[in-house]
Amino acid sequence: MTISEDRRPTSTLPFTQPVLKATGLVKTYGRVVGLDGVDLELYQGEVLAVIGDNGAGKSTLIKCLTGAEIPDSGEIALNGKQVQFRRPQDAKHFGIETVYQGLAVSPALDIASNLYLGRELRRRPRKSPACRWIRLWSTTT
């Protein structure tokens, strides 16, 4: 699976360096080859679809790019700088996350709410001076 044809944006756009570049990614599971030297370049403003037959390595590629799997060899670079994602939180730190297809969504919520499900901003309730006094008083008696 090779995804590296010259798909750079037209010369009217100033983006000449890929935002995300994967070179020679290899991932094996025992004797099974999941990825065999995959190259990929993604440019700013570009929408890229990863399409292939079942077993072609699409999910493995996405998992390697997002830290869910660690490639056996190859390089991943963001904005020209080499990175290594050992876990999804590493990729998330750089703004890369995966939305997996699946049934773990809430049909009662809109798309944006489903994407942020479990990530809502939470704020601790403020404790008034009276609450602090009651807590202090209850520990001394």
Can you tell me about this structure?
The structure is a single chain. With 141 residues, this protein is of the alpha+beta class. It has a single domain (20-121), classed as P-loop containing nucleotide triphosphate hydrolases (Rossmann fold, 3-Layer(aba) Sandwich). Helices cover 22% and strands 21% of the residues. It contains 4 helices and 4 strands. The chain has helices at residues 58-65, 88-93, 111-115, 129-140; strands at 20-29, 32-42, 73-78, 81-83. Strand 3 (73-78) and strand 4 (81-83) form a beta hairpin. The chain is globular and about 50 Å long.
Features:
globular; alpha+beta; Rossmann fold; disordered N terminus; 141 residues; single chain; four-stranded antiparallel sheet
Helix and strand arrangement:
Blueprint: E1 20-29, E2 32-42, H1 58-65, E3 73-78, E4 81-83, H2 88-93, H3 111-115, H4 129-140
Antiparallel strand pairs: 1-2, 1-3, 3-4
At CATH level 3, the topology is: Rossmann fold
CATH class: Alpha Beta
Unreliable stretches: 1-12
Shape: globular
Q: Structural class of the helix and strand makeup?
A: alpha+beta
Oligomer: single chain
Number of separate structural domains: 1
Find the CATH superfamily. Answer: P-loop containing nucleotide triphosphate hydrolases
The biggest sheet, with number of strands, parallel, antiparallel or mixed sense and barrel status, is: 4 strands, antiparallel
